[in-house]
């Protein structure tokens, strides 16, 4: 990706709640208004739209009075959040729009997956390892298999996830909009949480809450104070991949044998002219807590098989070596398919994160499944 081909000019969200009693449209309206206000734009200036869940693109335009010359909507899966932002940047670079509004919202969700499962009925099984004839009918299936495999491969503490969850629950106590802001969870209390699918406990799962977020991707000349998109790379497809895992684990369809994967600087780092050491704050798509450990390794923030030690040593905490999911993430702030992570990174790089602000944050990274990442710089 060319340097500064696009910027994020504004980001905002609705209030998050487990049961808000409000429609997805109402929540999306709040998020759009917040993002426009942050960007200093009027809705008439928005000429691009990408919707990733909550409403269809045409209803967003009709309900909120938008007139766009580029519109698209994606499947509502969270792994498409990073690609949505990168698509918006490509649209900007191609001259098809100057301000692309990206929106996601949901209301009334009570669970992800389960029986009956539309995902599991797809030919070949679901995208997250849902294979109903083995009794696997929800996205947690793949995450549980991945963590069990990781523990066996590297001799990790199977309860190391308590460090991830406790850190994010603490971060949520510093975030007035986090769903679990009043519910810290100690590492010891984590061990008392019930299992959903072993070895994952309830606290390892994303929150199925109501909420919405909006991010505006703009042409640099149209938003000179926007946060530059320094680099990015899309999802990797093929038999090297398994969702909620990383290459070289011999999970699902992965062909590459254990030990064949070695870290190399990702394309996104090369495009941005940085290394992992230059990143100050990270948002990792954590629909399940094992993703934090696996993606820290995948993107070079710690060595292969050492991610569990990294979190156990407190290095992902605010004030640690590399603060991760400073808003509380999916497991404590909002299960909003990665969009709340992007909003949080925007706030961190603007110095707007309040009690959870990372001092001197100048470069942020959003990581979503299957090797997708977006690198953001401060204005």
Walk me through the topology:
Elements: E1 7-13, H1 24-39, E2 48-51, H2 57-64, E3 70-73, H3 81-93, E4 99-106, H4 140-154, H5 161-173, H6 187-190, E5 195-197, E6 200-201, E7 211-218, E8 227-233, H7 267-272, E9 281-284, H8 290-298, H9 307-312, H10 329-332, H11 339-350, E10 363-368, E11 372-377
Large-scale geometry: globular
Low-confidence runs: none
**Proportion in helices:** 25-40%
| Helix-strand sequence | EHEHEHEHHHEEEEHEHHHHEE
CA radius of gyration: 19 Å
Q: For the largest beta sheet, what order do the strands appear in spatially?
A: 3-2-4-7-1-8-11-10-9
The assigned structural class equals: alpha/beta
CATH topology: Peroxisomal Thiolase, Chain A, domain 1
CATH class: Alpha Beta
Total count of helical runs of at least 4 residues: 11
Question: Mind explaining what this structure looks like?
Answer:
The chain has a nine-stranded mixed sheet, sandwiched between helices. A two-stranded antiparallel sheet has the order 5-6. A hairpin with a 2-residue loop joins strand 5 (195-197) and strand 6 (200-201). 28% of the residues lie in helices and 16% in strands. The chain has one domain: Peroxisomal Thiolase, Chain A, domain 1. With 379 residues, the protein is α/β, with parallel strands linked by helices. It has helices at 24-39, 57-64, 81-93, 140-154, 161-173, 187-190, 267-272, 290-298, 307-312, 329-332, 339-350, and strands at 7-13, 48-51, 70-73, 99-106, 195-197, 200-201, 211-218, 227-233, 281-284, 363-368, 372-377. The longest helix is centred in the N-terminal third of the chain and has 16 residues, at 24-39. 53% of the residues are buried. The protein is built from eleven helices and eleven strands.
């Amino acid at each position: 990706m060319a340097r500064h081909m696009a910027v994020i000019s504004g980001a905002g969200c609705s209030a998050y709640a487990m049961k808000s009693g409000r429609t997805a449209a109402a929540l999306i309206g709040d998020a759009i208004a917040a993002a426009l206000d942050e960007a200093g734009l009027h809705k008439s200036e928005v000429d691009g739209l990408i919707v990733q869940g909550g409403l269809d693109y045409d209803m967003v335009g009709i309900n909120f009075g938008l007139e766009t010359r580029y519109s698209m909507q994606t499947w509502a899966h969270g792994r498409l959040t990073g690609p949505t932002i990168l698509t918006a940047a490509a649209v900007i670079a191609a001259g098809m729009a100057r301000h692309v509004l990206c929106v996601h919202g949901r209301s009334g969700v009570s669970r992800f997956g389960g029986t009956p499962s539309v995902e599991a009925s797809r030919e070949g099984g679901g995208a997250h390892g849902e294979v109903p004839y083995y009794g696997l009918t929800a996205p947690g299936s793949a995450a549980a298999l991945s963590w069990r495999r990781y523990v066996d491969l590297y001799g990790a503490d199977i309860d190391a996830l308590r460090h991830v969850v406790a850190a994010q629950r603490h971060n949520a106590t510093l975030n007035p909009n986090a769903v679990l802001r009043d519910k810290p969870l100690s590492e010891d209390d984590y061990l008392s949480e019930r299992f959903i699918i072993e070895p994952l406990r309830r606290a390892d799962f994303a929150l199925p809450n109501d909420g919405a977020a909006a991010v505006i991707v703009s042409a640099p000349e149209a938003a000179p104070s926007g946060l530059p998109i320094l680099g990015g790379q899309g999802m990797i497809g093929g038999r090297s991949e398994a969702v909620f895992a990383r290459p070289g684990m011999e999970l699902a369809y992965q062909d590459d044998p254990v030990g064949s994967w070695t870290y190399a600087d990702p394309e996104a780092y090369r495009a941005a002219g940085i290394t992992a050491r230059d990143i100050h704050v990270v948002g990792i798509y954590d629909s399940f807590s094992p993703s934090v450990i696996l993606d820290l390794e995948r993107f070079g923030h710690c060595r292969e098989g050492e991610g569990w030690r990294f979190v156990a040593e407190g290095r992902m905490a605010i004030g640690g070596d590399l603060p991760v999911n400073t808003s509380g993430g999916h497991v404590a702030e909002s299960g909003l398919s990665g969009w709340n992570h992007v909003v949080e990174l925007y706030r961190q790089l603007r110095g707007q994160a309040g009690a959870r602000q990372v001092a001197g944050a100048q470069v942020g990274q959003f990581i979503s499944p299957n090797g997708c990442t977006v690198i953001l710089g401060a204005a």
